[in-house]
Amino acid sequence: MRQRALVSLAALAVALGLLVGGQVAPETSATTAGGGVDGVVGRAAVVRAASDAPDAAGAQVEVVETEIVIDSVDQPAEASEPSGEADLVDPANEDVVASEPTVEGRLETPAVDTSGAQTIGVTWPEGADGSALTPEVRTFDGDGWSPWRALDVSDAAPDPGTPDDAREVRGGTDSLWIGDAEAIQLSFDPAGNEAVEGMRLALIGAPQASGSDEAAPDEVDPDAATQEAVVRTAAYVPAQAVAPQMYTRAAWGARPEVCAPGVAGTLLTAVVHHTADSNSYSTVAQAMQQIRNDQAYHIDGRGWCDIGYNFVVDKWGNVYEGRAGSGDRPVIGVHAGGFNTATVGIAMLGDFSTITPSPAMQEAVAKVIAWRLGSYHRDPMSTVGYTTGGGENSRYAAGTYLALPTVIGHRDVAYTACPGQAGYSLLGGLRARARQLIDTGWVNPSLSAGSVVSGTPISVNGATLGSTAWTLTVVDERTGVTMASRTGVVDQPSGGQLAAWDGRGPAGVPVGPGPYRLTLTGTGAATGTPAVPWAATVTVTTGPNPATVAPVPAADDLTFVPMTPQRLLDTRQTGQSLGAGSRIDLTVAGVGGIPADAKAVALNVTAVHSSAGTFVRAWPAGQATPDASILNTDPSRTTGAGTMVGVGGQGKVSLSNNAGATHLVVDVFGYYTDSPGVGALYSPLPAGARVLDTRTEGGRMTSAERRTVQVAGRDGIPADATAVLVNVSSVLPSGGGNVSAFPSGGAVPTTASVNHLPGGNVSNRSVVPLSASGRLDLALQGASADVVLDVVGWYGPSGTLAFTPITPKRAFDTRTDGTQLGEGQTREYSLAAAMLPADARVAVLSLAATRQSAGVTFLSVWPRAVPRPVASDLNTGAGRDQANSTAVPVDGADPRVQGYNDRGQADLVVDVLGYFR
After folding, report:
1. Alpha carbons within 13 A on the beta-carbon side of 703
2. I need a surface site. Which of 518, 627, 831, 896 has the fewest CB within 10 A?
3. Using CA atoms, how far apart are residues 889 and 883, in angstroms rounded to an integer?
4. Helix/strand/coil (H/E/C) assignment for every residue in 99-135
5. Are 423 and 278 in contact (CB under 8 A)?
6. What is the pLDDT, as a whole number, of residue 32?
7. CA R_g for the chain
8. Parallel, antiparallel, or unpaired for β 119-125 and 170-172?
9. Separation in Å, CA 36 to CA 12, 16, 403, 430
10. If pLDDT is split at 50, 70 and 90, which confidence band does 50 have?
11. What is the pLDDT of residue 13?
């Protein structure tokens, strides 16, 4: 079987003779002005083609594969020198048959024509034992046949589960550079014949491109680049060590990878290799050709996604980007079977069995080690824990846990001579030099725990490269708010605690449940050299709730005093998020302009950054936790709800979260008092009053718009009204945003009345104070929306009813009593379970819709024996539990209300929060 693959190198001109740092071949290029382009921190400097680079478009790497057949004959024969083309096997058209026995008992092939090829390799099906054949090769040129040399059997194989492993891969030898050889012969041990079938010879090469030996330009400007060397991703880690300058894949003419590489979570170890090819390359162009050929062999011969090495270094110290993405991410290569994952494979181009790598090559390898390992907080002179993936040629079985040096030679983990004896002997010096280049850094830092209970301290443990001044910053990942910042100086060469956080936020109290990002930065105490920042996330879980305060008797018959909205709590700033079952007791009396003897408060409670579908409760502190809730939300929404709640023990209101973790924002719009002569009474509007509908008046509100609405003196609302109980609805918003309602003329508050998402109607009813002229203002932030205002009652000097808060009680739940509302259906429901007094005239309710079947619907609750009002009480849809508050006129002796659902089916849950009488 013969196969031919042609690989276009449209960018080959870029690859020919361009200098990127380190040394260049003196025969082909001058050094850059001033000794080379300055290094950069964090990534490699890059070089691409100058505008006058030689045109090499159309240059190709050709891969020819032909079957190798081992066929024993009786009599030994000696191979003679090829006398002409007729003596050569044409691999493009003929199988290569090993049938000529030698006196040593091996079998040789005839001479094989290698015209146009500079690299060869032998492959066999995955799983076959090619090592049993002990393949050897010799080359023929004008001076005759070379000595026989072994074709090293490669141990490189993809790690299980990687994209390379999913391809049809083949075992094989390492590639071998044969340069300008005219022919080759292969030799095999026939004893291994039965172990291998389907063996192939791969010949890889390309015609020499015009101008390929021209010198590199004297000056190279990486800022003139048109294409990034490597692509930054979310997995990018900033490097502290100065990154070596390098030839990008485009610069050396790499093919695109044929599949996306696997990416590990970190880098643990650097594996040093040699390619075991010839050291005879004498130009950068030849080095690039050798790398291109290796890539073609790895892709077409071995079946991998890309070249197996992450980086390649030539004899002059030039660095070449290998496997795509290796400069920014811990890309998984194919270079050390069982040790590919979380390692970086650095290949020295050539054979360093007996020849010592040049000082320039050594320095470049050390720079790559420092750059890549330093980026992941490894000490090149230390060890890390590593669990091997195993492999046929691995020294360790799969699953073996090792204390692995952070810089190793390939032979340390495989039965191979790589990186050659001369190369291997330099590892100690490479480790020391790489550490010197890193200078300052954290070594193997880790959290003392990945998850802790709220209030538990946590530390960052590890070692340091010298005395280091550190800063530990803790940020709530949900909000981006800094919870803590700590500083100190540490010197832990042998490991220990580097820094610690007590688990408390800016308010000095333990932070609540959720993810917190700890970032450790530092500088060398003596040198000022910055360390690579390290970061990790700790999950804080729910801790114990505070002790329940002593309850106080409930007050009754209260009057209302409106206030300019004030923020009482924002757990985003304090870190006091609430976990599943968490409770917070919020002091309201005596703060934010609320008098110490206030008996109840009108609040707007907003849930933000919820991690799960949940509901929130509010009740007087000290009382038993009620079944009733005031709002429902989920991770896709920011949800607010107005509520009236009595002040409990120690002047506090209790708030709790049911599931997941959530932040809460609490704003107060007024308070209720029993002080004589203070405050206003309430009067309902049984039919409601629509005071604004932008769909018919004034048009949609747009971002940053502020609009004034006259409320008092119209539609049954007296001119002296001081506040209204109003439903604010956002209708068909075009995107995310919010609407705030507040006294006209005042500053736009930080709280929103409703928060909207694209296309979803949403409403929230709350008490809104009016200006002296009886007006309120609306402010919209974010995407445009229509806004509707429906008033259900008002406060003022001529009001008639006083408010009495109660511990919330569940009045009815259609999920349990079988009275679900159908489409367009009205039902009558009793509030008797709340035990309202006979003289109650208005019930303050929290409504919740759940299990809706329609994508969009609305629900209304209103007094019995009157027509359904135009205004709805809540807007909702399938998959979105929604709650809102309202105040419905009732007969306390027989407290019944009507409920309506517009579309589909929906369940309705109603809780009583208090009453007016």
Report:
1. 6
2. 627
3. 19
4. CEECCCCCEECCCEECCCCCEEEEEEECCCCHHHHCC
5. no
6. 30
7. 39
8. antiparallel
9. 23, 18, 39, 22
10. very low
11. 28
d(CA 310, CA 299): 14
The chain-wide mean pLDDT, for the chain, equals 87
In a 13 Å sphere around the CA of 325, the CA atoms on its Cβ side amount to 20
First-last CA distance in the chain: 97
What sign does the dihedral 406-410-415-418 (CA atoms) show?
negative
β-sheet bridge partners, residue 896: 830
Q: For residues 686 and 683, what is the distance between their CA atoms, to the nearest angstrom?
A: 9
Q: Which pairing describes strands 639-646 and 681-693: parallel, antiparallel, or unpaired?
A: unpaired
CB atoms within 10 A of CB 401: 10
Tokens of 479: 């909000």
Calculate the alpha carbon distances from 182 to 139, 144, 161, 176 in Å: 7, 10, 41, 15
Q: Using the predicted structure, report yes or no on whether residue 720 has a pLDDT greater than 90.
A: yes
Name the E strands within 785-873. Answer: 786-796, 803-813, 825-830, 842-850, 857-863
Q: Which two tokens stand for residue 826?
A: 């009205």
Which residues are paired to 880 by β-bridges?
877
Phi, psi of 176, deg, nearest 5: -135, 125
761: phi then psi, degrees, rounded to nearest 5: -70, 140
pLDDT tens by residue, 522-538: 999 988 999 999 999 99
Question: Which residues lie closer than 8 Å to 836 by C-beta, 6 or more apart?
Answer: 843, 890, 892, 895, 912, 915
Q: Can the peptide bond before residue 553 be classed as cis, meaning omega within 30 degrees of 0?
A: no
Rounded to 5°, the CA angle 304-310-315 comes to: 120
How many C-beta atoms lie closer than 10 Å to residue 493's C-beta? 12
- The predicted pLDDT at position 11 comes to 30
Say if pTM beats, i.e. exceeds, 0.85: no
Helix, strand, coil proportions of the chain in percent (round to 5)?
A: 10, 40, 50
Q: For residues 484 and 791, give the distance between their C-alpha atoms in angstroms, rounded to a whole number.
A: 44
CB-CB contact of 349 with 313 (8 Å): yes
Secondary element (H or E) of residue 288: helix 284-296
Q: Please state, as a whole number, how many other Cβ atoms lie within 10 Å of the Cβ of residue 713.
A: 13
The whole-angstrom separation of Cα 19 and Cα 219 is: 9
φ, ψ dihedrals at 834, nearest 5°:
-85, -10
Least confident of 20-29, 69-78, 848-857: 20-29
C-alpha span between 322 and 357 (Å, rounded): 20
SS3 437: helix
Least confident stretch, 27-36, 305-314, 444-453, 706-715 = 27-36
Q: Contact 65/2 with Cβ under 8 angstroms?
A: yes
For 782-796, how does the pLDDT look when each residue is reduced to its tens digit (9 = 90+)? 999 999 999 999 999
Residue type, 442: W
- Hey, what amino acid is at 736? G
The pairing of beta strand 534-541 with beta strand 451-453: parallel
Gap between the Cα atoms of 394 and 382, Å rounded:
22
Q: Give the type of residue at 915.
A: Y
Q: Are 723 and 767 in contact (CB under 8 A)?
A: yes
* Structural domains in the chain, sorted by start: 226-438 (3.40.80.10), 442-540 (2.60.40.2550), 545-679 (2.60.120), 681-798 (2.60.120), 806-916 (2.60.120)
User: In 10 A of CB 116, how many CB atoms?
Assistant: 14
